[in-house]
Amino acid sequence: MSKVYNYLSSLPDEQKKRFVPIFGTIERFYTVVYLIVRNEHATEQDKPEYFEERLQVIREVKHRIEKLLNSYGLDGEEIVADIGSDYFEDFVNYKELEMDLTNDEFINMIQRVSKLT
């Protein structure tokens, strides 16, 4: 696994518990951020209808996750950027992350993050 994934996995149990209400597990948190970065990249490349609005929403969700991590005493910007680096490394090497997350679960977690202030 990646350096950031190993870092998150090695957090004390007290910090890991903070991820449970929104993401359930560290693994699911990692997957959600990875998918957000992937969606941002795909939107930038494909430029679908209303892509500017989509990018704005995606970036707002990323920002909220960064703030959430900061509230946990972690460096949110660095963690999200490192997961983004993992995605781009996989992208250039034609690899895909194996995910144990349904589309509905992903949307549910994004909705929970979106409700954070």
Identify the notable features of this structure and list them briefly.
117 residues, mainly alpha, globular
Helix content: over 70%
What's the number of helices? 7
Query: What is the N-to-C succession of helices and strands?
Result: HHHHHHH
What is the distance, rounded to the nearest whole angstrom, between the alpha carbons of the first and last residues? 32 Å
The residue-averaged pLDDT reads 95
Number of strands: 0
Question: In this structure, how is the largest beta sheet organized?
Answer: none
Tell me the Rg in angstroms: 14 Å
Oligomer: single chain
Sequence stretches where pLDDT stays below 50 over 5 or more residues: none
Q: In percent terms, what proportion of residues is strand? A: under 5%
Structural class per helix/strand content? mainly alpha
Describe the secondary structure blueprint for this structure:
Elements (H helix, E strand, L loop, with lengths): L2 H7 L3 H4 L3 H4 L2 H21 L4 H21 L4 H17 L10 H12 L3
Helix pairs in contact: 4-5, 4-6, 5-6
What does this structure look like?
There is one protein chain. The chain is mainly alpha-helical. It is built from 7 helices and no strands. It has helices spanning 3-9, 13-16, 20-23, 26-46, 51-71, 76-92, 103-114. The longest helix has 21 residues, at 26-46. The radius of gyration is 14 Å and the shape is globular. The model has no long low-confidence stretch (mean pLDDT 95).
